[in-house]
Amino acid sequence: MTAPAARPRLAPRWKSTPVPDPLQVDRLTSELHLPPLVSRLLVTRGYGDIEEARRYLRPRLEHLHDAALMKGMSEAVERLAIAITKGETVLVHGDYDVDGICSSTIMVKVIRHLGGVAVPFVPHRMTDGYDLGDAGVDAAIQAKASVVLTCDCGTSAHAAIERLCAAGIDVIVSDHHLPSRPVPECVAVLNPRQPGCEYPDKDLCAAGVAFKLSQALLRKLGGSENIALRLLDLVALATIADVAPLRGENRALAKYGLKMMSDTGNVGLRALIEAAGLAGTPLTAGRIGFVLAPRLNASGRVGHAMRGVELLLSSDPSECNRLARDLEELNKSRQEIDRETLAQARAMADKLDLDQVYGVVLGGEGWHPGVIGIVASRLVEDLARPVMMVALEHGMGKGSGRSPSRFDLHAGLTACADLLVRYGGHKAAAGITIAADRLDAFAERFNAVARERLTPDDLYHDLRIDIELTADDVSHDLEALLRYFEPYGMGNPAPMLAIRGASLHGPPRTVGKDGLKIRLASANGPLEALGWGMGDRVSEFSAGDRVDIAFKLERDTYMGESKVVARLCDIRP
């Protein structure tokens, strides 16, 4: 099947960052011995203070906050310590995405390392539904567990937790999703976003919370905290996959975890890296997010996420290679389902009056619940609006939504809560369960909420330009300097550079399926620029034309040769 044609994207608006305070720039340049361009970037990103800039450029694990600061930590550690020393069974209940798979794996590994009995469980997306529910309760009872520890879920699972408690099973929730109502009553809730939690960093993903719990538990039982540090590869994988902001603690966790990942001791993760064709290549946040994570996610989207947990827990190379190959095939199936669903959703979106629809709700019979979140993300790129995709079956709908930064999706769903069976998530991504006969009312309400909270001026994608320079300024040295800002991701994007009035050196041409390749005249020799998804614009430009380009700078190494390439984000006459 051919790839679906995208609705023409809205032309992004270029917005230059405010001119940084020259005194702060000079101070950073002088005291930290930095090039002025790096100092300018630091100041525009809010790191004008000397110590904050130093920590940003060189994040260290000793800068991490004490796990004991998290509300509920002492109670959680105390109960788990008793379970471990007495040989009680702990059911570790995860979610079926990368964050849930990794956080579950972390806790199972640490509990078993300390001599405890840990049984992993992840619900099946299609048959069990999201979050801790009846399937998890039944699994705990069947395993004769005396403790259930959730990972990446549980904050909104009041009914299931009440049922577990009634059965005499203690519950510890470790999660990071925004509570939609008061947190459940149980032994402990570890969630930095819950009311009353004074933990300084609210941006941890579930694997980050599990890492903190592991540190505290190892400390309590006299284990080496190096055991937790050896799991930072999984923390980094989950942090990047879950699109957690790469600032504060997440920046340090991701940076150290990425370093570990290239030579990981986790046999399953190594097999996954090899199956994805990433062995021997630099493991950047981009490669993790767009190549590696989708393969692990595929186990939960179109298969059973327990395969992902089994892969990361196994130390048998042959078993890991088999599981990694299975995930590779599942990911190919997931991509095909993505393409078909996206084509249908785009056809539906094309019929919308976008002058009136600010919040998009699309529903379809036969849509796979495991891919609708990915499709929602693609539609947000097309439409610059919050999008909820709902898969309908047997009178019920399972929905997944994504939103641009200007709209708080979780708050928007809260305004529609009376129309929903349940919902949960955070500002940028969320999920719902809804009766099919309420979908039209929900679509109307969701759009009304979006129209209240968004203006026509919000319905565009903005390109935030960090630095304007000339083609002559682009060099290997500049690219090397910008690497100090890695890892890039949510909350810490790669610096967006702009060149205005550059001269095209030769005619543009298409590359690959849909790429645009241009060369810009420069004192250092022609600068190559590539724009994927821009091939249809090749006829707009000719040799010698003057163009403005917005781009990110990358190093491309092929057959032992290294060159600097501009990855186009936009091009204008």
Could you explain how this protein is built, in words?
- The protein has 573 residues and is α/β, with parallel strands linked by helices.
- Helices cover 40% and strands 20% of the residues.
- The protein contains 20 helices and 19 strands.
- The longest helix has 33 residues, at 317-349.
- 46% of the residues are buried.
Summarize this entry quickly.
The chain has 20 helices and 19 strands. The chain is α/β, with parallel strands linked by helices and 573 residues long. The chain has four domains: 15-58; 63-328, inorganic pyrophosphatase (n-terminal core), CATH 3.90.1640.30; 352-458, Diaminopimelate Epimerase, Chain A, domain 1, CATH 3.10.310; 463-573, OB fold (Dihydrolipoamide Acetyltransferase, E2P).
Keywords:
4 domains; five-stranded parallel beta sheet; alpha/beta; 20 helices; seven-stranded mixed beta sheet; Diaminopimelate Epimerase, Chain A, domain 1; inorganic pyrophosphatase (n-terminal core); 573 residues
